[in-house]
From TrEMBL, chain A:
The gene is sdhB. The lineage of its organism: Bacteria, Pseudomonadati, Campylobacterota, Epsilonproteobacteria, Campylobacterales. Signal peptide: none annotated. Its EC number is 1.3.5.1. This is Fumarate reductase iron-sulfur subunit. Gene3D superfamilies: 3.10.20.30, Alpha-helical ferredoxin (1.10.1060.10). Pfam families: Fer2_3, Fer4_8. Binds 1 [4Fe-4S] cluster. Belongs to the succinate dehydrogenase/fumarate reductase iron-sulfur protein family.
UniProtKB/TrEMBL annotation, chain B:
This is CoB--CoM heterodisulfide reductase iron-sulfur subunit B family protein. It comes from Sulfurimonas diazotrophicus. Signal peptide: none annotated. The lineage of its organism: Bacteria, Pseudomonadati, Campylobacterota, Epsilonproteobacteria, Campylobacterales. Keywords: Oxidoreductase. InterPro entries: Cys_rich_dom (IPR004017), HdrB/HdrD_reductase (IPR051278). Gene3D superfamilies: 1.20.1050.140, 3.40.50.11810.
């Protein structure tokens, strides 16, 4: 029989009402928490026992609707799934409850997710095909074809990855991991006919997949193992595989690695920047920093560029294993 | 008698080029601790997560080849770059869990007489020191405690996320929301670890060329966070984070509207200072943001 234990926890609860408050504040609440509770139980108890005006979203209580997503000590969680014991083990007995995005807070834990849904809509997250209005047979998908979706359709649109993404936090044009996962889901569907349209959208500078900072926060925070960054990488791959890569700094940066490895085994860092940017833009953008690096011995001259041993072996493998061209 | 720790060293590219001080300090610390490092001179670039965007299969083959050379020496591979660590560990994870993919990769490797078996473990030098050498043993070796310094740990993304992969690699993942390895290391060396919100955040390095505004903001916020926490200097186990924080302070400062220049040391340099290595051995002159406290 499992023993139920209790602990006293101090909660710092974000409070804000956009209709009446100019600034948010944090209310401190001490509570006895049992080892059986999840975060949603705490939100309920705050509303029912402490302050009836406290507001948050909740719905299914089974981790499938995504409504109750909030942040605890900066960690995005589904309140109905996240065990208090795990959070206490992670952060100790002082926990801060905040909405997913403070700047989008409407009332307490409730945020305006309009940006999330607009980004979602932007990538055409639906199957696009000419449909026979009177089909005579089922349109079957084989298990192998279905496996290509790589769990992308498990997304419950909770917004945890979206509001944890540092690229989005610093660039509101960026489409973001959840919408990219949705774009991949339909691009990977053999029945869909709009792959190139979607690639045009996710390939665009400033908003597209090239602005991902590769921090893996979206994979870490996802409660449904959708692994958005894996889908972002797949979209990068699709851009090249479908021959729609725009010749710009982002694509040349990726391709430049293959060139360098073929030539040296190792990456020629300075040459990669020149290849990606072009000589004049490189000097204009990075000349000052490059000179400072040169002065302290951080720049290797081309004639001193180190090479991997057995370079012939590397070249042979690149020739035989390359799968795309740019 | 204690067993001597021996690793196959995957230097990555940056330690051979723009952060020579990282390679120098790695060898200096290894010598002080009696750790033998055998350099994988055949290794190629890991692709740094960008080759993977262009040609995923090619990156798998090249990373598998690197691991093959650690296997051929019968050693655990040790990395000194978070991104090399992630890409290599991710390759190992994918090949060890997908027999069909492993067979496809081995078909290519066979053309040059190699075979990926999956027998070598992969770890970062940070975890080699903490988990294999041990913090207690390290503490006994400290000759110059760092007690007068407030030190801001900056973890870098690819050592702490995705935690499932890190767990598989190190046997015990750090908590990506509350990591502790660098903090523990600082305390072991006698320093004062400062806490700040950005210590487990992204430095922006991988978007430097493609999304410079985003990258500059991330760098600026990280430097600002450490400064506001009264850090004397920052320390990181990742040479890419180091490069971003050490050299890009001017753009970053413009992005956040503040002067955010401060010394940023490699993890190995910090350990070396406490072990009594000289500034020259640690390459402390190779910093753009001057290391002015030694």
């Amino acid at each position: 029989m499992t023993t139920i234990t209790t602990q006293t926890i101090t909660f710092n609860v974000f409070r804000f009402n956009a209709e009446t408050d100019y600034l948010p504040h944090y209310k401190t609440i001490e509570m006895e928490v049992t080892s059986e509770e999840v975060v949603l139980d705490i939100l309920n108890r705050i509303k029912w026992d402490v302050d009836g005006s406290f507001s948050y979203r909740r719905s299914c209580r089974h981790g499938i609707c995504g409504a109750c997503a909030i942040k605890v000590n900066g960690k995005g969680v589904l309140a109905c799934k996240e065990r208090m014991n795990d959070l206490i083990e992670l952060f100790g007995t002082e926990l801060t409850l905040e909405p997913l995005s403070i700047k989008r807070a409407v009332k307490d834990m409730i945020i305006d997710k309009e940006d999330f849904w607009k980004k979602h809509e932007q990538v055409k997250p639906y199957l696009i095909d000419e449909i026979d209005e009177h089909p005579e047979s089922e349109n079957l998908v084989t298990p192998k074809e279905e496996a290509q979706l790589l769990e992308a359709d498990y997304c419950i649109q909770c917004g945890l990855c979206h509001y944890s993404c540092p690229s989005l936090e610093n660039n509101e044009s960026y489409i973001g991991p959840a919408a990219f996962a949705a774009a991949y889901r339909f691009n990977a569907d053999v029945r869909d006919k709009a792959t190139l349209d979607r690639l045009d959208i996710v390939n665009a500078p400033d908003q597209g997949v090239w602005d991902c900072v590769k921090c893996f926060e979206c994979q870490e925070v996802c409660p449904k193992e959708v692994n958005p960054i894996e889908k972002i990488t797949k979209l990068h791959n699709q851009v090249f595989e479908n021959g729609v890569a725009i010749n710009n700094v982002a694509t040349r940066h990726a391709v430049g690695f293959a060139h360098s490895i073929k030539k040296h085994g190792l990456l020629d860092e300075a040459e990669l920047v020149r290849y990606s940017e072009g000589t004049v833009p490189m000097l204009m953008k990075h000349g000052k920093v490059g000179f400072k690096m040169f002065k302290v011995g951080k720049v290797v001259m081309p004639w001193n560029m180190p090479k991997s041993d057995k370079l012939d072996e590397v070249k042979a493998l690149i020739k035989s294993s390359s799968t795309v061209k740019f | 008698m204690e067993k001597k720790l021996t690793y196959a060293l995957f230097t990555g590219c940056t330690a051979k080029e723009s952060t020579p001080e990282q390679l120098m300090s790695t060898y200096a610390v290894a010598e002080k601790l009696g750790i033998e490092l055998v350099e994988l001179s055949e290794a190629t670039c890991c692709g740094a997560s960008h080759l993977q965007d262009y040609d995923d299969f090619l990156s798998l083959v090249l990373n598998a080849r690197n691991i093959c050379y650690a296997e051929s020496r019968g050693m655990t591979m040790v990395t000194i770059c978070n991104t090399c660590q992630l890409n290599t560990a991710m390759t190992k994870h994918r090949l060890d869990n997908d027999p069909e993919l492993k067979a496809r990769v081995n078909e290519k490797l066979a053309e040059v007489g190699l075979e990926y078996k999956g027998t070598s473990e992969i770890t970062h030098f940070l975890y080699a020191i903490i988990d294999d050498f041990g913090l207690e043993t390290l503490k006994e070796k400290v000759v110059t405690p760092l007690s007068q310094f407030n030190i801001a740990p900056f973890y870098g993304c690819h050592n702490i996320r995705p935690s499932e992969l890190q767990n598989e690699t190190h046997g015990k993942a750090e908590n990506p929301y509350n990591p502790n390895s660098l903090d523990d290391l600082i305390v072991t060396l006698g320093g004062v670890n400062v806490d700040y919100e950005e210590k487990n955040k992204c430095c922006g390095f991988h978007a430097e060329l493609q999304a410079p505004k985003t990258a500059a903001l991330l760098t600026g916020k990280a430097l600002m966070g450490a400064m506001d926490a009264n850090a004397d200097w920052m320390v990181t186990p990742c040479p890419l984070c180091h490069l971003k924080l050490d050299t890009q302070y001017e753009h970053a400062g413009h992005a956040v509207g503040r002067d955010v220049k401060m010394p940023v040391l490699h993890m190995q340099q910090m350990v070396g200072l406490a072990l009594g290595c000289t500034p020259a051995e640690l390459g402390l002159k190779h910093h753009v943001s001057k290391v002015n406290f030694v």
